[in-house]
Design a protein that fits this description.
Layout lengths: L2 H49 L7
């Protein structure tokens, strides 16, 4: 057994936990974004209109 294999075995559960946490955070962020989308997008689009959409094009 190599040292790398031992490290991989030890980190396996950590990676699984991190993946689960990341998935949970992603779901929470999506829910928050859905709730705030209507509130935040209005002013954002107004700012883009003032600056000009053409400025974004290469």
């Amino acid at each position: 057994m190599t040292l790398e294999k031992t490290i991989e075995d030890g980190l396996g559960p950590c990676y699984k936990t991190l993946a689960m946490l990341e998935e949970g955070v992603s779901k929470m962020m999506r829910m928050l974004m859905e709730e705030k989308k209507e509130d935040d997008m209005g002013p954002c689009i107004e700012k883009l209109d003032k600056v000009g959409w053409a400025a974004q094009d290469p």
